[in-house]
């Protein structure tokens, strides 16, 4: 998601160089309903992400200390809230740097130590009997259809719908967007592959998650194979990493509350910066309370992240198109997003039977969704012509293999349906529109809420006034 946001991010910054949130730009582009839809999805996604990090912290503390899971999530939440209230986005940026250092350190030091403690290279021979046929297959269809493909589909959705990514987009110098986001992609990619090795090692070693809860797997591996010193280092690394993500969610939620709720309600010229800060801090407290409430249910972290990624899929095409296509209307944005959401939910949670004609219809819509996802990914880098070719080619190539099969994978088909429906509806409602939106007007509608500083120079003196 970090890689795929940057080409769109450069366009977004060119259109709205002083924006704070994507929803704020949608207000200038379309109006209140589009803004509220994007802001609402951002709020839901950030609360879910916050919940996931509290769950991870609680599981870590419960396994590595005398404290319970509930005490663990309270301690993690309290610590993150206090330092984020004190320093806001600055704290988020500093902990991000610490997070990268910690995660790279874990990959370089912790993962190899666990690997050799579990048996080293010989583990791949002695532990092969613990794998199923699908698990031993590098090109496993189960792994790809149930987890790999849904995450690929969610990549663009996270890039567009996640305010924690957008706030970095607006914070980085415009000329450094490309190198910054490419560097981040390589760094995070390396660490994710490294941490993923813990799951592989656990599989070959025959380690079963405590209580069948996969949230416990990584701290469980640390307890099993690390000595006291490295275990303490591991604890600090992981706690710092999840804290970094959680404080980003708090900063994102406060940005939405300040810019999209308070700022737009009173108007840019009437907004009081001190009141905005108060609104942001209150939002952080309320968000932390909500995250604690949901985290107490110990939901599966992977399920939560895949769900929110698919949910955001309903907004991807309308948001991207709104930055490039003059014809997209507020009605098209709103109707396409709501229609996609209305169809996504029953498909994702299997509220309707997928047998017979319904299943085949879902397959067709999902196959179109494959073309939409790959087309949009290509569009950011190569432009519209190449994107169309790749999108159409993807549909033609995938159709013979996916038809009659895709509806059996609810997570994947739900995400693809969200992309497909929102794209088709938004396009059909916009293509005949007579609207010719002037993107240059967004710069004037979206900007700083701080007092404007002006400099007046005459022959006698230089004065600065606020």
From TrEMBL:
The keyword Protein biosynthesis does not apply. Its main location: membrane. It is found in: Cell membrane. Pfam families: SSF. It is a multi-pass membrane protein. It comes from the Bacteria. Keywords: Cell membrane, Ion transport, Membrane, Sodium, Sodium transport, Symport, Transmembrane, Transmembrane helix, Transport. The keyword DNA repair does not apply. The chain crosses the membrane at residues 36-63, 69-89, 101-124, 144-161, 181-205, 217-239, 278-295, 301-325, 332-351, 357-379, 386-403, 409-429. It catalyses: L-proline(in) + Na(+)(in) = L-proline(out) + Na(+)(out). Belongs to the sodium:solute symporter (SSF) (TC 2.A.21) family. This is Na+/proline symporter.
